[in-house]
Automatic annotation (TrEMBL):
It is an enzyme of class 2 (transferase). It comes from Dictyostelium firmibasis. Gene3D superfamilies: P-loop containing nucleotide triphosphate hydrolases (3.40.50.300). Pfam families: AAA_18. Broad-specificity nucleoside monophosphate (NMP) kinase that catalyzes the reversible transfer of the terminal phosphate group between nucleoside triphosphates and monophosphates. Has also ATPase activity. Involved in the late cytoplasmic maturation steps of the 40S ribosomal particles, specifically 18S rRNA maturation. While NMP activity is not required for ribosome maturation, ATPase activity is. Associates transiently with small ribosomal subunit protein uS11. ATP hydrolysis breaks the interaction with uS11. This is Adenylate kinase isoenzyme 6 homolog. It is found in: Cytoplasm; Nucleus. It comes from the Eukaryota. Residues 112-122 are annotated as: LID. Keywords: ATP-binding, Cytoplasm, Kinase, Nucleotide-binding, Nucleus, Ribosome biogenesis, rRNA processing, Transferase. Residues 37-60 are annotated as: NMPbind. Belongs to the adenylate kinase family. AK6 subfamily. It catalyses: AMP + ATP = 2 ADP; ATP + H2O = ADP + phosphate + H(+).
Length: 175
């Protein structure tokens, strides 16, 4: 399904702690796009099915999230960030960025967030096993999925530059 938009939609995904929200915020701000932080929206708009006390997080209701953002996504010009990606409609995105982070760096970031040990171990295992990358590759056309390293400040700057260039190329191809 090929949807014609005036502005692209970008998904930035990856294991918690890989820098999705920071990168998405910068990309959205620098390119006059909307930043949609799915985790924040789930909490603020009550797009969940309650609280998971084991992992200390809300249980996301995928249908509620999709219903909430369908009209916004059709218009384009959005940078969405979330740690999951396989349940979003494929038609929503023109580019899917999967951020990857060195395990030691990721562990430090999750500890600074005061994640419980079970949650840290679960997220480190997901990063080691490339769970989010596999989900992205299985859910979207391979040519729109890009894996980017996100362990250092230099990586972040390189990622910003890569995405800015991609957006410029998108406009040249589509407008």
């Amino acid at each position: 399904m090929n949807i014609k938009r005036n502005r692209p939609n970008i998904l930035i995904t990856g294991t918690p702690g890989t820098g999705k929200t920071s990168l998405a915020g910068v990309i959205a701000s620098n390119n006059e796009m909307n930043h949609i932080d799915i985790s924040a929206a789930v909490k603020e708009k009550e797009l969940h099915d309650g609280w998971d006390s084991e992992f200390q997080c809300y249980i996301l209701d995928e249908d509620k999230v999709c219903d909430e953002f369908e009209d916004i996504m059709v218009k384009g010009g959005n940078v969405v960030d979330h740690h999951g990606c396989e349940w979003f409609p494929e038609r929503w995105f023109d580019l899917v960025i999967v951020l990857r982070t060195d395990i030691q760096v990721l562990n430090e970031r999750l500890e600074k967030r005061n994640y419980i040990p079970l949650k840290i171990t679960n997220n480190l295992d997901c990063e080691i096993m490339q769970v989010i990358l596999e989900e992205a590759l299985n859910s979207y056309k391979e040519n729109i999925v890009v894996e980017l390293q996100s362990s250092t400040l230099e990586d972040s700057e390189n990622n910003q530059n890569f995405i800015a260039q991609w957006i410029q190329n998108w406009f040249e191809r589509n407008n």
